[in-house]
Amino acid sequence: MAKLSIAVLALITQSVVGLTGSFSGNQLQCTTSNQSNLNMKLYDWKRREADESAINDVENFEFTLDNIKPAPGSRKRFTRKGRGISAGQGATCGFGMRGQKARSGRPTRPGFEGGQQPLYRRLPKFVGRPTGPGHEKTIYNTIKLSELNGAAEGSTVNFDSLFETKATTKSKYSIHKIVGGTELTAKGLTVQAHAFTKSAREAIEASGGKCELLKATTGEVIAA
What we know:
One of its GO terms (biological process) is translation. With 224 residues, the chain is an alpha/beta fold. It is 26% helix and 9% strand.
């Protein structure tokens, strides 16, 4: 009886070893086949089967406004919200179950911290530098020094004259600032603007010119 049980145990052990070996071999084979068939999927379905060998030859291809296009996968389709729970952003659209932040419109004003002392009131203040709601920094239309190079020597230059000669483009801001960073080749210019950077003023005065500040409201020259 003992010999029979030992023989049965040996037979079961051999069968288990055989099954383990075959399973590991199949698993290895599946992994290898999956790795060999791996390929990148494009999000843009219209370009998956397109032949773009010509546009990929960067050295010999000329890019123009009618053939330039974003790289495949760089512009993913936007998420459609409120179109069912299977989409991942259905029903509440990621805003949760009710509450102030789930309502339409902005829930609180910028800088509000729920009633506690906000950051712009906790920080120390600088004299002449107001902060907090209602105070905004002045935004200028910047004019580079290189845009002044086309002006005649000894002439008066401002934004209107530069715009008429097409040296600069139109701006949505009504106040203008001359900034440095580029080379000034024109000589003896009288430049009129609402503000000048330190480097721009030094470059204009070094070339024999002068800077005249303008009023932000009337555009008149401020007497030095």
